[in-house]
Design goal:
The complex is a heterodimer. Helices cover 32% and strands 27% of the residues of chain A. Chain A is an alpha/beta fold. Chain A folds into two domains: 148 residues, 3-Layer(aba) Sandwich (Rossmann fold), CATH 3.40.50.300; 72 residues, no CATH class. Chain A has a six-stranded mixed sheet with strand order 6-7-8-3-9-10, with helices on both faces. A four-stranded antiparallel sheet of chain A has the order 2-1-4-5, with helices on one face. In chain A, helix 6 links the parallel strand 7 and strand 8. Chain B is an alpha+beta fold. Chain B is built from ten helices and six strands, in the order ααβαβααβαβαααββα. In chain B, a hairpin with a 4-residue loop joins strand 5 and strand 6. Chain B is elongated and about 100 Å long. The chains are: A alpha/beta, B alpha+beta. The interface between A and B is medium-sized, with 23 and 22 residues.
């Protein structure tokens, strides 16, 4: 079963720049996929279209059975509840503790207090931060903050986890820590992960599927791929 | 129950936000307070103007004197013609004899003087007291009556009535205009102050959107916050208008300038006014914050 299906997608921005030309892709359930490419390759646009921050100008994007391109602005939450999203800049709430930050994702969808407690503790355990429940984000290292963000992204048991350069602000050791956490989530929870990155070492070490984009076009899609400089 | 749980969280968050952004909240509340005070005064004024316009209109009468030699048939025919005029609401007939009796009862001097005349040589006239439906057209109606045969004189306090009626009508329009303009201005003020509190929470809203909060869930705390600001903002205006009006009413004994201009009794009038002020405050806060948050829900 394919979790994500992209058909003939084109994205042209209002300023006339075309970021994606006629893209076709299918990503199956449980996969771990890297999206790589140079700047201007369209990798960020691709992931933004997956969580409907951008709309394709042409074509169809299906995520977990939802037709993303046709989703109305006020229905976007239906898609977002099936997804977890992790960003380079963590996007945590500074005035709330680790626990509150993760619980926030469940509170806004109206979960019960007991349910929130169980799920938040489980998610924080999965990312290895159970001992820092009551810390504030400012008191954590970058790697730890990113792990809080990952916990928040998976707390709702999403089918798909989108990561937009999650290691972009981290040193190599911390990056590998994050990758281990993501790999764990992929294996233990069966969550499909799509991760945009330009970190060669990570891609080469992980040996996962790799989608390579160049100037808005798909160059190749390999199982157990590596970061191929020439292709980019 | 999920909706109640969500509502509870919204109310909690709204109170938190009011307290956390205390200085901004205070600014919004003062804005609402000042405008609502003026709105309350305008409401009290316009209701009072309406009230005494009606009172005066109710008292307004056209007095019709018939010719001295009018017979009973003449009286009947005049009566029929008055009835046919559209603007006539009701009328009362007083014959010479009734007028004589009334005057005699009122004063000893009249009693003596009038006793000297026989009924058929009485200088008194049969009269009709006519009340009209639309006070604006009282002049026209008087003219119509004047043109009826055997009618001698028609009186209705001409110039003064006309002027008063037009003055009241324009005062009423102006007060309505002021109230509406003030409400609109307040809405804009609140939109802007709440925009400030919201832009401080842009990040929070975008995160809410990302983790799958529906627009409704995101909006509710802000709308509740606006309602709270409106509620707090209407407390002082309600106190001022209630006690102010009571003091005003008691000071003038319920009349302004003359007995003609009667003020509305404070109870239950001040309760109605307070309720209107409260509702305007809450609505204005709600509308203001709802439209302020809209812009951030498109990410």
């Amino acid at each position: 079963m394919d979790l994500v299906r992209i058909k003939n997608v084109e994205k042209k921005y209002k300023n006339g720049v075309t970021a994606i030309y006629d893209l076709n892709l299918a990503i199956e359930k449980g996969a771990f996929v890297f999206v790589i490419g140079g700047s201007g390759s369209g990798k960020s646009t691709l992931i933004k279209m997956l969580y409907r921050e951008e709309k394709p100008t042409k074509g169809q994007i299906i995520v977990g059975g939802l037709d993303v391109a046709k989703l109305k602005n006020r229905k976007v939450y239906k898609l977002r509840r099936k997804l977890g999203i992790v960003f380079q800049d963590y996007r945590l709430l500074p005035k709330q503790t680790v626990y509150e930050n993760v619980a926030f994702a469940l509170e806004v969808i109206g979960a019960k207090k007991d349910e929130i407690r169980v799920k938040v503790l489980k998610a924080l355990e999965d990312v290895g931060l159970k001992h820092k429940l009551h810390e504030y984000p400012d008191h954590l290292s970058g790697g730890e903050q990113q792990r809080v963000a990952i916990a928040r992204a998976i707390v709702n048991d999403p089918k798909l986890l989108l990561c937009d350069e999650p290691t972009g602000n981290l040193d190599p050791d911390m990056s590998m820590e994050i990758m281990k956490v993501l790999e764990d989530i992929n294996e233990k929870r069966g969550t499909t992960i799509i991760m945009v990155t330009h970190d060669k070492d990570i891609v080469n070490k992980m040996k996962k599927q790799v989608i390579t984009l160049k100037e808005g076009r798909l160059v190749n899609f390999k199982k157990k791929g590596t970061y191929n400089n020439e292709a980019i | 129950m999920k909706p109640f749980r969500m509502l509870g969280r919204s109310i909690r968050d709204a109170f938190k936000s009011v307290i956390r952004n205390f200085s901004l909240s205070l600014a919004s509340i003062s804005c609402i307070t000042i405008t609502l005070i003026i709105v309350a005064i305008a409401i009290i004024a316009s209701f009072n103007v309406q009230n005494f316009t009606k009172e005066i209109e109710r008292d307004m009468t056209i007095v019709v004197f018939l010719e001295n030699d009018a017979t009973e048939e003449d009286v009947e025919s005049v009566k029929g013609k008055i009835e046919k005029i559209n603007n006539v609401d009701n009328y009362k007939f007083q014959s010479k004899v009734d007028v004589k009796k009334q005057m005699q009862a009122e004063s000893e001097v009249f009693n003596r003087v009038l006793d000297e005349w026989e009924d058929d040589e009485s200088p008194l006239k049969d009269t009709f007291q006519v009340k009209v439906k639309e006070i604006e057209n009282i002049g026209k109606t008087a003219k119509q009556i004047q043109s009826i045969e055997k009618v001698s004189v028609v009186r209705y306090g001409e110039g003064m009535v006309d002027k008063m009626v037009t003055a009241f009508a324009s005062i009423e329009k102006v007060t309505y205009g002021i109230v509406i303009a003030l409400v609109i201005v307040t809405v804009f003020l609140i939109i802007n102050t709440i925009k400030l509190t919201i832009s401080a929470r842009k990040r929070e809203i975008s995160i809410m959107r990302l983790v799958g909060a529906s627009n409704f869930t995101i909006k509710t705390p802000f709308i509740v916050e606006g309602m709270i600001l409106g509620l707090f903002g209407s407390i002082v205006p309600i106190i001022i208008s209630t006690y102010g009006y009571l003091a005003f009413y008691n000071h003038f004994d319920g009349y302004l300038f003359s007995e003609l201009i009667q003020l509305i009794k404070p109870e239950p009038f001040i309760y109605t006014t307070s309720l209107i002020v409260l509702v305007i405050g809450i609505l204005v806060g709600m509308i203001g914050s709802a439209s302020a948050v809209k812009k951030y829900l498109k990410v």
